[in-house]
Amino acid sequence: QAFFCLLLCIPWGSSCPPSCQCTEWAGAKAVLCSSKHLEEIPKDIPRDVVFLKLDANSITRIPSNAFRHLSHLEEIDLSRNAIEQIDRAAFKGVAAGLRTLDLSGNRIRSIPKEALLALRAKLRLANNPWHCECALQEVLWEARLDPDSVRDITCHTAPREEYVGKPLLQVLDAGANFCSVRQRTMDVAMFITMFGWFAMVIVYVICYVRHNREDSCRHRDYLRSLPSAQARAE
């Protein structure tokens, strides 16, 4: 144990973000930036890092391509920050190799499913003020969630008051389906759109028939006003 502690204290020669500690653990590079009052993800993280700890900071957003240059990255700890926004391409470039991603204890209400469903990593999403919706349900069904933290994914807000304060897994087990609600909304919107187009076609046909009828009446009246062939012969 003392040997591994010693390894953690050995800095390595490549550049290291200010206020962070760059060490080597079990033959792999680690960047430790825990509790450093960071407000954003450092830009100068070494490319060969394997373990990245950014927990207990004040990071509010994970922008697109935030880790794209870190092709060796296997574990990211972003727990206990103030993250509210995660871009769709936040983990682009590391999705295949990432094994663990900890986003627990943040301020995340919703997340684009595209940001997480491409990941093979084990996800920790507990203790966030989630708005229970279809995207979160799809993440729960399709992503690799840490089984020990699934029950701590709680509905802070939800379409129905009875779901508020309950674990999302419990709500889904009770038969709720947030994606079907969205599907019904889309179906209603499509029906209204189709009805609008149909009404426009009917109005156009009626106007077209009425216009033709008026033209026919005017033409008939015009023909009646002309002298007859017999009158011309006389």
Q: How is this structure best described in words?
A:
With 234 residues, this protein is an alpha/beta fold. 27% of the residues are buried. Helix 3 (134-142) crosses helix 5 (178-225). Strand 1 and strand 2 (28-32) form a beta hairpin. A six-stranded mixed sheet has the order 1-2-3-5-7-8. Residues 1-13 and 182-189 have low confidence and may be disordered. It folds into two domains: 21-178, Leucine-rich repeat, LRR (right-handed beta-alpha superhelix); 179-211. It is elongated and about 110 Å long. Helices cover 34% and strands 14% of the residues. It has helices at residues 2-8, 113-117, 134-142, 168-173, 178-225, 229-233; strands at 21-25, 28-32, 49-53, 61-62, 75-77, 85-86, 100-102, 122-124, 130-131, 155-157. It contains six helices and ten strands; from the N terminus they run H-E-E-E-E-E-E-E-H-E-E-H-E-H-H-H. The longest helix is centred in the last third of the chain and has 48 residues, at 178-225.
